User: What shape does this take?
Amino acid sequence: MPKVVSIHSYRGGTGKSNFTANLAATVAASGNRVGVVDTDVPSPGIHNLFCLEPEQMGKTLNNYLWGETPIEETAYDVSANIGLEGENRLFLVPSSVKADDIARILKDGYDVRLMNDGFRSLVKSLQLDYLFIDTHPGLSKETFLSIAISHVLILILRPDKQDYQGTAVTMDVARQLKVRKMLLAINKAHSKINPEALKQKVEATYGETVAGIFPLSEDIVQLASEGVFCVTYPDHPISQEFRSVAQQIMEG
Assistant: This one.
C-alpha cells in the first residue's frame, strides 16, 4: 500500500525542503517509485534541489489547483537530473515560481479538497510507492489537510527555543488529527551539542521518536541547493543518517 509522508516544520529556515529532497531520493534509491509535491505554494524552492529549472516547468501545481490541467501533467521525472540509476524513479510536482502566480494564489487561495484528490490521483497514475509532501511552514488549513492524510508525519526542528515551542503546538494539532505515525528530525545541530543527550531530552519532552539528528554542515551549504546531497555524496555520514531515517519510514 502506498505511503503518504508529510515533512513539516513550525518555522521557516529549518532546512525542510533540503530534508524532503534527500529523504525522498534515499527512498527512491532503495528501489521505489517516489513522488514529491511542493505544496509550499507561497515560497516554492525544492525544484532547485532536483535540478529542474523554471523554464522547464510548463505546468505546475498551480495549474492543477486552478482547474486548468490534470495533476499528472504537472509531474516531472527528475530521476536522471539527480543521478538516480536503473529502475529507481522520482517525480516532482513543483509549484510555480512566477510572481503573478504566487500573488494570485495568495490573493484568491484555492480549494484544499482539490489537493487531497490530486494526491490520490498522482499515487494511482504514477503507481507510486511513496508520496512526499513538502509543506508550507506554520499551521494553516492546507497544512492540516496534509497532516491529516499522512501515514507518516516528520516534524523538523532545530535545537532552538522557538522551534521547541512551535513543534509542541504542531504535535498537539497532529494528535488531534490522529496522525498514524510521528517522527522528529533535529536539523542544524551545532558541533558542541551531545547528540545522544539531545535525543533523550527531545524524546522525553515530546513522547515521540527522534528519527535522526543532522549536524549544521558546511558540506551541505557548499552544494548550494544544486543537487541532492545524499546522491552526490552517498558515503557521507549525513547520507548515512538519511538512510537510517528512510529505513524507519519503509519499515513502519
About this structure: The mean pLDDT is 92. The two ends are 12 Å apart (CA to CA). The chain has eleven helices and eight strands.
